[in-house]
Amino acid sequence: MTRFQAFRIHHDDAGHRAGLETMDTDALSPGEVLVKAAYSSVNYKDALAGTGKGRILRRYPLNGGIDVAGHVVASSDPAFKEGDAVLCTGSGLSETRDGGFAQYARLDARWTIPLPTGLGLRESMVIGTAGFTAALALLRMQDNRQTPDQGPIAISGASGGVGQLAIDIFSRAGYEVHAISGKPEHFDTLRALGAHACVDRHQLDFSGKPMDSARFGGALDTVGGSMLSGLLPLIHPYGNVALCGNAGGIAFDSTVMPFIIRGVSLLGVASAGTARDIRDTIWQHLASDWKPRQLARIATDEIALAQLPATFSRMLAGDAFGRTVVNHT
Ligand code: NDP
């Protein structure tokens, strides 16, 4: 039994509260693989869970943090041995079981990924759920026959974690990326990540018509709401819109026209419940041909566990820029 620090989230008759606490490894959710965490990262979902602004946890109390990477301390599953470098994203962390914002995490062996050759532990957490989600979107779009010659890919919420990693990953995979962002002051950085063009989200002139001139071969929408409504009429025939986010709202208006006239596909992207074989495929890509080239630039912040609440506030205000890595050492 080891005592350690964890960012623990409670919700009971006294309401929501969360903060650093000391706990024992014996008190962690059950699992086969005990990991000493080296790094985790902050995602929008973590901000919702940590502040109580979104109902992410399905039981309380739990340690926050949907991502974690570190070294195995003990394993009852022979697939893992002490000292192995591993990572885990989603898979119930900070939802149904204790998450990664702690010095130790006990993981389910089914969802524990050996760190792929070509990635460091810190790099894997700069990528984290955000990069995994961007890569899952690309995989789904390519499975549905998206090709670079269909036209540029619009990426909304481009300055956020998913957005920045998506710019890097999609451009590396050969697509011309058009970044849509509400932060024109960062357009130079978005171009440096691989964006061919940048569009100010506040200057978007969506017509509101059911169909408009096709402008994008496809899109990764991390915003949802009116952004999704506006993008669908602008997609070239048989292009795909991968949707992963809701920072801009959960409801959207559309008509059947983009779907029945242009054969546009709307693809849902749900990283948390991704099947193990698809996870393995994605992490292999992320460590090789889709490995983001600008991870150092994308990791804009490195914080300690105690600094999590300030980061949550920034994210929920829409002020996030790039990825925040949590250093547990
Ligand atoms: P970030 O907070 O890092 O980025 C979100 C970005 O969205 C902001 O930087 C901003 O970009 C834009 N944005 C924020 N608020 C608004 C708003 N009100 N209207 C329009 N745009 C807004 O979050 P992440 O990148 O981590 O996540 C992005 C979205 O994807 C979130 O909704 C998150 O919940 C979701 N997500 C979903 C996953 C899944 O599996 N489905 C997995 C991971 C994330 P800018 O200023 O550049 O426009």
TrEMBL record:
Residue ranges constituting the Enoyl reductase (ER) domain according to the UniProt record: 15-326
Organism this protein belongs to: Rhodanobacter fulvus Jip2
Q: What is this protein called?
A: Putative quinone oxidoreductase, YhdH/YhfP family protein
Q: Which domain of life is it from?
A: Bacteria
Which SMART domains does this UniProt record tie to the protein?
PKS_ER
Q: Which Pfam families match?
A: ADH_N, ADH_zinc_N
SUPFAM superfamilies cross-referenced by the UniProt entry: GroES-like, NAD(P)-binding Rossmann-fold domains
Q: What is the lineage of its organism?
A: Bacteria, Pseudomonadati, Pseudomonadota, Gammaproteobacteria, Lysobacterales
* InterPro entries associated with the record: Acrylyl-CoA_reductase_AcuI, ADH-like_C, ADH-like_N, ER, GroES-like_sf, NAD(P)-bd_dom_sf, Zn-ADH-like_protein
Question: Which molecular function terms from Gene Ontology are attached?
Answer: acryloyl-CoA reductase (NADPH) activity
